[in-house]
Amino acid sequence: MRQADDKTGNEADGAERNRFLEAQLLHGENEIRVHTLQTSLQGILADAEEVLFSLRRGDPDAVENAKQDTIDLVSKIKILALQTRTIRSNLPEFKLVVTNMHEVTDSAVQMMKGLARSKQVELKFASDRMGLASRAHTSKPHIEHAIQAILHNAVKYSFSATGRAEQRFVIVTLSSSQSTWLLEVENYGVRIDPDELPHVFRAGVRGRHAKLEDRSGSGQGLFHASQICDEHSGTISITCKSAGAGAGVVKVRMEIPLEPPIRG
After folding, report:
1. Which of 134, 192, 234, 251 could form a cystine bridge with 229, CB 3.0-4.6 A?
2. 181-203: buried (b, 16+ CB within 10 Å) or exposed (e) per residue?
3. Distances in Å between the alpha carbon of 130 and those of 102, 176, 264?
């Protein structure tokens, strides 16, 4: 009888814990809408920038190819407009699910490979699959968007075909401990000055060197990534080592619990 009572109590505790975790992640319907749309926009922005860089390089067939690519982008934007109308009337499901972090990260890397290739930037993904605790409890669409935003930011602000070949890189590393998984994204590109680092994760913030380089951007990508990280009780940070003349090696670290803890 005692065992039955303990089992019932554990089940009740587990159900209560799940409800609490979902409630923590469900706050702010507007944020959920934004995250969902941003995921679609991320792919469109990457495609648009790939077209832009091909035109800047002056490839012989760039103009003709750009025409077709632009037609494809218009189609994607029309689909996004339909999604926007749907989201306005139907809030998408948002809940913690078991997530294979290797697959999610690899998918984001594949999405950004076209843009990286157009800039002649090498995009590498390293993951210890044998030793990696690849499954975690996350709100999968949101985590996908956070990783896409971080990668897109790294590729976008990487220098294109400048300096030594080994400097044109974006390195993505995924690892884990007993209680957390860790994503690290490092790139060689536009420098972030020390006084700017504390403000990078605020909405609309763009560094002075990004503006001088005339890089496109809204200052929203890392802001949304930090929001999603916070929703999962994780931490996110950024560092930059100066490489001279407006250049730097930038590293973003996002660490998330395998099981988000209950907040008091």
Report:
1. 234
2. bbbbbbbbbbbbeeebeeebbee
3. 11, 11, 35
Question: pLDDT, tens digit, for every residue of 41-98?
Answer: 666 666 776 777 777 766 667 677 777 677 767 766 766 665 555 545 554 456 789 9
Greater pLDDT, 232 or 22: 232
Q: How far apart are CA 106 and CA 169, in angstroms?
A: 17
Burial of 44 (0-12, 13-18, 19+ CB in 10 A): middle
How is residue 93 annotated by DSSP? P
Query: Which amino acid is it at 108?
Result: A
Q: Which residue has the tokens 């035109």?
A: 55
Q: Shortest CA distance to 72 belongs to which of 110, 101, 43?
A: 43
* Structural contact between residues 41 and 34, judged by C-beta atoms closer than 8 angstroms: no
The two tokens of residue 42 are 């991320």
Number of neighbouring beta carbons within 10 Å of residue 166 = 8
pTM, two decimal places: 0.69
- DSSP code at position 262: P
Integer Cα distance of 37 and 127 in angstroms = 28
Contacts of 85 (CB under 8 A, 6+ apart): none
Q: Which residues of 6-28 are buried (b: 16+ CB within 10 A; e: fewer)?
A: eeeeeeeeeeeeeeebeebbeee
Strand, helix or coil for residue 238: strand
Sheet bearing 122-127, strands edge to edge: 122-127, 169-176, 180-190, 247-257, 235-244
User: Contact 221/202 with Cβ under 8 angstroms?
Assistant: no
Q: How far apart are CA 191 and CA 208, in angstroms?
A: 9
